[in-house]
């Protein structure tokens, strides 16, 4: 409950900031003297009408260009992107789970992330794959961590490349420098984990010992560090890295581009990548309620950077969020129900949700 409340507050704060930055004042010529003449109700009504004029005008213009036929290729492209995502997830788990279950877990998990707080869909993926394989949670957590590192590193690199291609410059060059240092630090850390694994475990154990938690660290956390080091070999890392590029560039980008066509907005491929980068940064906040506000603010900011209207960006962000929410939630429900039926056909009972290393609790149906 606290996480949901926190996420909601973040949404309100970000959306409030976003609307405060929208240049709607240019169309607002409200005389405050009207307040005393018209009264509170009439004045408020007039204010709302004036302040929403620009957004309404933008909506009407886009409505004229609305092409609902693009909803069909959007559904197909979204499924295609999730298929690539599932394939990478299957490889990151070392193919130790059947591909169909890697696919099920991905569709359900991504859909669940649309409405569960704290990236609950990712947690469900771990639970799902533990039930359908002999993989241990440390291995699954390592695969999930590598997935996030690949996504973060690639989309940041793609976003910076889009900024350069679109000739959007940072006067102080601070943003580019900081982003480069962040990405370089991530890969330096991964190299250290790969080649200095035991040294890092020893240092962390010593640090935990300062707080009287050395044994707890060695028993509960050290195997995560060791598993990560074992995974970081080129032959296991290379193909998922290539799939990451395909997933973003010919999967997610395709969906973003189709939704632009849906609302009649023309955009270059570099612009699509920049919007995708902004949206991805927005949903990195680990809470579904806050994701809406931050996502809208991020996408709108990308439109403003490209010299477009903020109201146009806000409308497009709403379109993307609503379309993805409906479609991915639908996918999640369908695959989850199919999975339940599939388990019963295999003679397996219902299961209580558990992330304990002592494994999942089975119940007879």
What do you see in this structure?
It is a multi-pass membrane protein. The chain crosses the membrane at residues 69-87, 99-118, 149-168, 175-193, 237-255, 267-285, 322-341. With 365 residues, this protein is mostly helical. It has two domains: 1-66, no CATH class; 72-346, no CATH class. It has 16 helices and two strands. Helix 8 packs antiparallel against helix 9, helix 8 (137-165) packs across helix 13 and helix 10 crosses helix 11 (214-220). The longest helix is centred in the C-terminal third of the chain and has 36 residues, at 310-345. The model is unreliable at 21-41, 43-48 and 357-365 (pLDDT under 50).
Task: For this entry, give a set of tags.
two-stranded antiparallel sheet, disordered C terminus, 365 residues, mainly alpha, globular
Give a nutshell description of this structure:
76% of the residues lie in helices and 1% in strands. With 365 residues, it is an all-alpha fold.
User: What class would the helix/strand composition place it in?
Assistant: mainly alpha
| Sheet with most strands | 2 strands, antiparallel
Question: What is the average per-residue confidence, as pLDDT, rounded to a whole number?
Answer: 78
* Rg, Cα atoms, Å: 24 Å
Strand order of the largest sheet: 1-2
Number of domains: 2
Percent strand: under 5%
Q: SSE order in H/E notation?
A: HHHHHHHHHHHHHHHHEE
Fraction of helical residues:
over 70%
What is the number of beta strands? 2
Distance between the termini: 30 Å
Oligomerization category of the chains in this entry: single chain
How many separate helices?
A: 16
Keywords: Cell membrane, Membrane, Transmembrane, Transmembrane helix
Membrane topology: Multi-pass membrane protein
Subcellular location: Cell membrane
Pfam family, one: LPG_synthase_TM
């Amino acid at each position: 409950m606290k996480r949901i409340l926190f996420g909601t507050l973040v949404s309100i704060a970000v959306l409030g900031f976003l609307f405060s930055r929208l240049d709607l004042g240019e169309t607002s010529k409200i005389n405050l003297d009207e307040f005393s003449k018209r009264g509170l109700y009439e004045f408020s009504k007039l204010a709302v009408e004036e302040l929403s004029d620009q957004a309404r005008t933008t909506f009407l213009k886009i409505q004229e260009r609305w092409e609902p036929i693009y909803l069909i290729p959007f559904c197909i492209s979204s499924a295609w992107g999730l298929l690539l995502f599932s394939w990478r997830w299957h490889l990151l788990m070392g193919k130790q789970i059947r591909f169909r279950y890697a696919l099920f877990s991905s569709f359900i998990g991504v859909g669940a992330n649309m409405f569960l707080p704290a990236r609950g869909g990712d947690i469900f993926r771990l639970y799902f794959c533990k039930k359908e394989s002999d993989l241990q949670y440390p291995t699954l957590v390592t695969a999930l961590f590598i997935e996030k590192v690949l996504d973060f590193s690639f989309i940041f690199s793609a976003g910076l490349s889009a900024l350069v291609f679109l000739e959007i410059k940072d006067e102080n060059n601070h943003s580019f420098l900081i982003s480069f240092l962040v990405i370089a630090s991530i890969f330096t850390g991964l190299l250290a984990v790969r080649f200095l694994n035991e040294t890092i475990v020893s240092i962390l154990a010593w640090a935990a010992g300062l707080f009287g938690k050395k044994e707890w660290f060695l028993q509960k956390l050290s195997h995560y560090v060791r598993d990560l080091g074992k995974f970081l070999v080129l032959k296991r890392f290379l193909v998922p890295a290539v799939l990451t590029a395909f997933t973003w560039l010919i999967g997610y980008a395709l969906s973003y581009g189709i939704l632009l066509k849906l609302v009649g907005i023309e955009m270059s491929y570099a612009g699509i990548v920049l919007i995708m980068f902004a949206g991805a940064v927005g949903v990195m906040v680990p809470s579904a309620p806050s994701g809406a506000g931050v996502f809208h603010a991020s996408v709108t900011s990308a439109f403003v950077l490209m010299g477009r209207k903020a109201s146009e960006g806000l409308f497009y962000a709403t379109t993307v969020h609503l379309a993805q929410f409906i479609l991915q939630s639908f996918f999640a429900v369908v695959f989850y129900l199919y999975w339940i039926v599939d388990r019963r056909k295999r003679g397996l009972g219902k299961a209580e949700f558990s992330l304990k290393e002592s494994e999942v609790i089975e119940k007879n149906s």
